[in-house]
Amino acid sequence: MIRTEFLCKSFGKLDVLKDISTNIEKGEVVAIIGPSGSGKSTFLRCLNLLEVPTRGRVYIDNVDITQPQIDIKKVRQNMGMVFQHFNLFPHKTVLQNVTYGPCKVKQISKPEAEKLGLDLLTKVGLAEKANVYPSRLSGGQKQRVAIARALAMQPEVMLFDEPTSALDPEMVKEVLDVMKGLVESGMTMAIVTHEMGFAREVADRILFLETGRLVEDAPPDVFFTQPKSERACQFLEKVL
Amino acid sequence: MLRFTSALLAQTGLALDFSKIVPSIPFILQGIGVTLAFTLVSALIGFSWGTILSIFKISNIKPLKWFADFYTSIFRGTPLILQLAIIYYATPQLLGYPIPGFQAGVIAFALNSAAYSSETIRGGILAVDKGQREAAMTLGVSYPLFMWDIILPQAFKNILPALVNESIALLKDSALVSTIGAQDLMRRADIVRAEKFIYFEPYIFVGLIYYVMITGFTLVARRLELRMRKSD
Ligand SMILES: Nc1ncnc2c1ncn2[C@@H]1O[C@H](COP(=O)(O)OP(=O)(O)O)[C@@H](O)[C@H]1O
Ligand SMILES: [Mg+2]
């Protein structure tokens, strides 16, 4: 589904990603963990070309999306993304946030998009907030709306960049629960997270990044009990 | 009220007689509509053109950026009354037909106001959270739609008070079009002065009208700003 080959990304002289090669199968859930500044966000953002890789390739369904002739807008429609700071549209209501993509990008009719939007809001438990503005929501509610907005494009993959890091502790669970629901529905997911318990519970594989290198790529049971690298040992000691 | 002021001023030795302009008051008052229409049309065209210029300024396409910067420096670096004169007196020479004063004024004011407002709008656009762009990009939204639906509404909300202030400044400066024959408040005061050979009365009268309008709008603008700050 997603494959990277020798993916490199530099910002000026700073090499943030170094030769990352991995793949994510359809239906697989991959958790990306590592110290802050190790390049997790940059890696995720290279997968939908929010950051353009300096070298290397990114294949989505065996198509190299780093090629210039690729219509990246089409590719992105198929890859939902959820951000740490939600990035909801503040001047649109909750429902308008969710229906904006389907209406304006996919050109689905408004009634149809609203039906889809309300279905999704029901799924994330926020149907009764459909007509309020995001400023009236709690952080956890905002993030659930952001998930619904991404799902409204009916993507095949969902990318999450620390979706619970900006939340008060008591709101983390409601967002993780929505994500668990997605996992159960068979969605392909790449999740950057600091929630080790969650990663261990839902992920099929853990990718451990350290200073821009993919240091470990293992199933959670292996990674959390017998990490191969010194770095991962140290990291786990700190966070567990 | 008028008579009272006149009496008062007469005592100071200034022989003002506002009763002389009473028959001309309806004629002068009609200038309010002209002045307001002139300001509104100039502001609307100016802000629209200013929006386009601001998008040029933040564009990656260098020539567009250069053009917008050059344009702004020209209109900010020369007197408005000169711009007005060039459009009213000089362009007909090129076109071969005259431009009515009102239209020439609108063109000059709109072009000039676009130069100033493009800077304000540009600031408003840059102040919109960077995350909005990423959210729109991941939905696959095209750049024009993104600008129109996501960025501009938020940018304009940010800078609404500044644009209202710019409109108020336009309203004040609109008196300049009297010099090219548009029948605005100022021009009507001039006409009354010339017909009746009275100076202070018509000028003070329109001065009062300008003052009330401008102070009123300024108050409204301040209210608006306060309310918006509260809603944030
Ligand atoms: N747009 C950018 N310009 C310059 N440096 C950046 C940019 N984005 C990220 N970086 C740098 O790249 C490194 C990795 O960042 P990031 O991928 O956000 O790490 P993580 O998500 O693992 O905390 C950091 O040192 C960060 O400062
Ligand atoms: Mg990050």
Automatic annotation (TrEMBL), chain A:
InterPro entries: AAA+_ATPase (IPR003593), ABC_ATPase_HisP-typ (IPR030679), ABC_transporter-like_ATP-bd (IPR003439), ABC_transporter-like_CS (IPR017871), MetN_ABC_transporter-like (IPR050086), P-loop_NTPase (IPR027417). SUPFAM superfamilies: P-loop containing nucleoside triphosphate hydrolases (SSF52540). One of its GO terms (molecular function) is ATP hydrolysis activity. It comes from the Bacteria. Keywords: ATP-binding, Nucleotide-binding, Phosphonate transport, Transport. One of its GO terms (biological process) is organic phosphonate transport. The keyword rRNA processing does not apply. Residues 2-236 form the ABC transporter domain. Coiled coil: none annotated. This is Amino acid ABC transporter ATP-binding protein. It comes from Pegethrix bostrychoides GSE-TBD4-15B.
UniProtKB/TrEMBL annotation, chain B:
One of its GO terms (biological process) is amino acid transport. GO terms for molecular function: transmembrane transporter activity. Residues 32-221 form the ABC transmembrane type-1 domain. The chain crosses the membrane at residues 34-56, 68-89, 203-221. It is a multi-pass membrane protein. NCBIfam families: HEQRo_perm_3TM (TIGR01726). Belongs to the binding-protein-dependent transport system permease family. HisMQ subfamily. This is Amino acid ABC transporter permease. It comes from Pegethrix bostrychoides GSE-TBD4-15B.
